[in-house]
Amino acid sequence: VSDSSRTFDVAVVGGGVIGLAVAWRTAQRGLSVVVLERGELGAGTSHVAAGMLAPIAEAVPTEQPLLRLGLASVGMYPAFVAELAEAAGRDPGYLECGTLMIARDRDEAEALERQLAIRQELGLPVARLRASEARALEPALAPGLRLALEIPGDHVIDPRLLVPALGEALSRTGGEVRTGTEVASVIVDGDHVRGVALASDGAEIDAGQVVIAAGVWSGAIDGVPDGARVPLHPVKGQIMRLHDPAGPGLLTRVLRMQGGYVAPRGDGRYVLGATMEERGFDTTVTAGAVFELLRDAIELLPGLGELVIDELSAGLRPATPDNAPAIGPTAVGGLHWAAGHYRGGILLAPITASIVVAGLVGEPLPEPAAAADPGRFAGVTVDV
Amino acid sequence: VSDSSRTFDVAVVGGGVIGLAVAWRTAQRGLSVVVLERGELGAGTSHVAAGMLAPIAEAVPTEQPLLRLGLASVGMYPAFVAELAEAAGRDPGYLECGTLMIARDRDEAEALERQLAIRQELGLPVARLRASEARALEPALAPGLRLALEIPGDHVIDPRLLVPALGEALSRTGGEVRTGTEVASVIVDGDHVRGVALASDGAEIDAGQVVIAAGVWSGAIDGVPDGARVPLHPVKGQIMRLHDPAGPGLLTRVLRMQGGYVAPRGDGRYVLGATMEERGFDTTVTAGAVFELLRDAIELLPGLGELVIDELSAGLRPATPDNAPAIGPTAVGGLHWAAGHYRGGILLAPITASIVVAGLVGEPLPEPAAAADPGRFAGVTVDV
After folding, report:
1. C-alpha torsion angle, residues B221, B225, B231, B236 (rounded to 10)
2. H-run or E-run covering B241
3. B279 DSSP 8-state letter
4. Where is A142: in which H helix or E strand?
5. Chain B nearest-CA residue for A288
């Protein structure tokens, strides 16, 4: 079953922020592209994600290639969202707010001093603030805090605005979106991909190239040859959305503390997250997790107790064995990965799109791509 | 505007547990009755209520007439729900589980000893349990508890099962229900009621007698003469519904502690409540309230942290100046009250129905009715 309405240069499997960013950038290069999304656009992890753009706050010294990827992507964000807003005619929800990392007691303060030293060695822009200085910036902080780091370059974006902006930009650029369309497998002929088969009726969609961008659900797509597989496992995150009936102003920067963060949207809405749990594909919201998130946040920001809870939810981060994503071409001709972004799917969307598009059109991959080479997992298996 | 399809012996304003219980009992006496409910049946406070049947745990020494009303009603419950199950052909959700009141520290233990003494003086069935005895009954209780009271006669019912059971029983007994039908005012001719007027189009429904059973929203009904008014104000309660993915067994009795309670439904579902807040008609769910409910419950019952949160909600208790309800006839002929039940609407449904029906048919009111005489508020006004 194959006709011209089902023939594309590129099929992108997955309509979250990653798949949509890849597809938009692909369409801009003049390729015909279709996004195949089993649910609604952005209904997977993108719907739950806080949208932290925080490579510096989240820097791990043993993961410097990932840090470079994140720094490159956060640096692309201002131009990316400006172009997106223009292309889509709508606000993608980007907020340049900066971040404070907070220590509440002596143990946390010592840990934060080490975090500061690591970032200073790496030449990252971080300022040490005394408690009084932090409270001058954010007067709603509890008096008891011990120490803070200011990270002026770590920001946040609202994925629930980013998704429809990307979808609109993609459509306006000539790309096609098919929601409610689940892909069962990629179809490989010899050493080259030639399309995908749908789960509903087995119908095939012909595509010269295929990009797998289905987050943690990418692992369920059949037909990927051994040498091109990427081991993925879900890391559950529980998260809470709130708003202030009194309007904006309680908090203007992202707060990060041991065990979580509070991110402002700039309009009186806030996101409080997030747990890190190995629970398979479970997305229930549990009493203990909600209690701990609220406890840590209210201790640091007592005024948060007055906020209205709008939503409790849980999402699944797509984790790889080394916490870095799989982005770019594989040993199978025409088969590309854009998945495994773990905590950084929203952050890494612009750089992911650049790397994947370079692979699709046969240009050299941008420098930080090496850390995300899907080929590094050839032969690796994991139990999920 | 008045025709035979709009003529009833009795119109009950409000389709919550109280209004439905009154209407069912009224229909059983051969009177034609209609329930007028502005939303869906039980969509007001009944939908949010935990369903505590706990006159002994909630006994207040200064409110002994109210205690007698509660004891009378809890005593009616077994026969009430048995008859209802038969009449409706469905389970009304009654659970004879008993209650433990728990003290977690020395201060709470001293307070609980006083609670015990009060109940013993009143001759109420309460047993003092050492911590080890309480944990033998409920092994999931935290080791740190100090003292417990066992109240074998305080139970719980699921209002979300009780409402449809009452609705079905009412229909099968020939009563009529009109949902989506908001009453704007009662119509009084001289010194006797003759019906109600609807908010939507001003249409009148003729009724020889009218029962106001609209909970805290009863205060918004116009046309009630001065001498028959009842001052009502809302007391907000935030509450949480959870379930145990592992099934029933974590807790078999109602737990009551300072600041809240955990009530089992017997099937792995639980209700955790409830705040007491004076916030007007606000029904938002706030971060601080959810935090405090979870904190107190998890401290006492650590396994509650593993439960899945199904719902957060807030309801409005209809409070009167003396915390007792307004039940029965007024100085206006044919105008009856069944509102102002505060924390006890579910508990007091059977006795309320008995009192109101006695008034409707002109029989002597049952003994504890005096505490609920609406006439005691004649001339009383309150700011809401």
Report:
1. -10
2. strand B233-243
3. B
4. none
5. B305
Using left for φ > 0, alpha for ψ between -120 and 50, and beta otherwise, residue A218 falls in alpha
Mutate to test the interface with B, among A281, A283, A290 (most CBs of B within 10 A): A290
Nearest to A75 by CA among A90, A91, A61, A96: A96
Q: Which of B284, B294, B312 sits opposite A291 (nearest CB)?
A: B294
Q: Per CB distance under 8 Å, which residues of A are interface residues toward B?
A: 240, 242, 245, 272, 284-291, 294-295, 297-298, 304-309, 312
Contact B309 A285 (CB under 8 A): yes
Q: Which of B284, B290, B298 sits opposite A288 (nearest CB)?
A: B298
Peptide bond into A274 cis (omega under 30): yes
CA distances from B342 to A160, A234, B347 (A): 41, 46, 11
Q: Pick the closest to residue B242 from B261, B263, B269, B218 (CA basis).
A: B269
Report pLDDT for A2. Answer: 44
Question: What is the length of chain A?
Answer: 384
Give the tokens for residue B54. 């706990």
Q: Out of A287, A294, A308, name the one closest to residue B284 (CB).
A: A308
Measured from the Cβ of residue B113, the count of other Cβ atoms closer than 10 Å reads: 14
Taking contacts as CB-CB distances below 8 angstroms, the residues of chain A near B313 are none
Q: Show residues of chain A in contact with B287, CB under 8 Å.
A: 240, 242, 272, 294, 297-298, 304-309
| Residue among B333, B342, B334 nearest B371 (CA) | B342
From A15, A317, A378, A342, select the one nearest A183 (Cα to Cα): A15
**Mean pLDDT throughout A238-260?**
96
Q: What is the pLDDT of residues A268-316, one digit of tens each?
A: 999 999 999 999 999 999 999 999 999 999 999 999 999 999 999 999 9
CA nearest to B77, candidates B102, B58, B96: B96
A119-177 confidence digits (pLDDT tens): 999 999 999 999 999 999 999 999 989 999 999 999 999 999 999 999 999 999 999 99
- Nearby residues of B64 by Cβ (< 8 Å), 6 or more positions away: B122
For chain B, 384 residues long, the average pLDDT of each consecutive 10-residue run is 72 98 98 98 98 96 91 97 98 98 95 96 96 97 95 98 98 98 97 96 96 98 95 98 97 94 98 97 98 97 98 98 96 98 97 98 95 90 55
Min Cα–Cα distance to chain B from A147, Å:
25
Measured between CA atoms, the residue of chain B closest to residue A312 is B309
In DSSP notation, A273-325 reads: E---B--TT----BHHHHHHHHHHHHHH-GGGGGSEEEEEEEEEEEE-TTS--
Using a CB-CB cut-off of 8 Å, the residues of chain A touching B277 are none
Mean local confidence (pLDDT), A202-220: 97
Cβ atoms A346, A68 nearer than 8 A: no
CA distance A303 to chain B (A): 9
Residue of A nearest to B293 (CA): A291
State yes or no: cis peptide before B274, omega within 30 of 0: yes
Do the Cβ atoms of A374 and A327 come closer than 8 Å? yes
Tens digit of each residue's pLDDT (9 = 90 or more) over B258-271: 889 999 999 999 99
Which residues of chain B have a CB within 8 Å of the CB of A312? 309, 312
Contact A286 B297 (CB under 8 A): no
Residues of B in contact with A245 (CB under 8 A): 284
Residues counted in chain B: 384
C-beta of residue B183 within 8 angstroms of C-beta of residue B221: yes
Pick from A290, A304, A305: CB nearest B294: A290
The whole-angstrom separation of Cα A159 and Cα A136 is 30
- Distance (Å, whole) CA B93 – CA B95: 6
pLDDT of residue A192: 97
